[in-house]
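Researcher: Go.
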Amino acid sequence: MKQSVAAWVRPEILAIGAYHVADATGYIKLDAMENPYRLPGSLAAELGRRLAEVAINRYPDPSGAGLKDELKRAFGIPDSAAVLLGNGSDEIITLISQAVARPGASVVAPEPSFVMYRMNALFSGLDYVGVPLKADFSLDLPAMLAAIAEHRPAVVYLAYPNNPTGNRFARSDVEAILDAAPGLVVIDEAYQAFADDSFMSLAGSVDKLLVMRTLSKLGLAGIRLGYAAGSAAWIAELDKLRPPYNVNVLTLAAARFALEQRAVFDGQAETLRSERAKLADALADFAGVTVFPSEANFVTARVPDAPALFDALKQRKILIKTLHGSHPLLAHCLRFTVGTPDENSAVLAVLNDYFGL
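Model: Structure:
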């Protein structure tokens, strides 16, 4: 049976492992950049009532049942921009890859960055060109421009802020790449709720710009809703590839309800920004720890021995993300999702013991 599979599956797929998600049962879960706050009880009850009214025996409205317009109003998406809904932003990346996949086509992205840019290029048979960031995780603009000039990529991905490093690239560097790129430029603003800048105001007016976001980091990771805003021409082509019922009726109803409660999620984001600053300052006080600037809902730090500290936290039932070994620039780096004040205090208590303070 195994031989039969190997005879038909593409060699590049056989050569990789599946995306790994750690079992977090029983742990303080700070490894996946999730909002740690659940809905307040009264809102959870109201959401339950809303969902109970949904006609789950019917297929969803393929056009999003008005949710696109509600997203535009809630997040300042320009009237000139068209909107695409996805089953998380992962699906939108898949649609982009499928749309441009042709022999010799390439994708350019800085590295390290979101792994699904590279993975989806592989899945769709695109050439992937990763351009290393500088040691401080800023863009190497000359190298990016050289790669664009050489490879003429169909797509350039820029996470703004970047995952897994947390920093936001200089806007002028992103603008230079946008000017130079011959194809689509996707600015991934998954962490925009925690950042100080956005390119959304240009969506729809710059033909080759696509701004991609998700509701996951805002506190709705479980409903899997991503969206992209851009020119009507690009959105129309991507929409041809979208499965007609890709966003289910429960997700549509939950997203609409959440937008009505936007102030609650904005308040949580503001709390997490404050906690991020406290966590970063506390981490920086430990000997040998380098904390990198973050405009996301996590803090990335380089420590003297990442595997040992990761294990020490895990033994105390705290799960974070180890980046060590994933890219040379991330040697001995750990990524700490910003949790509640109590969760962050639990992390720091382990570090106090580990560093002998």
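Model: The longest strand covers residues 106-111.
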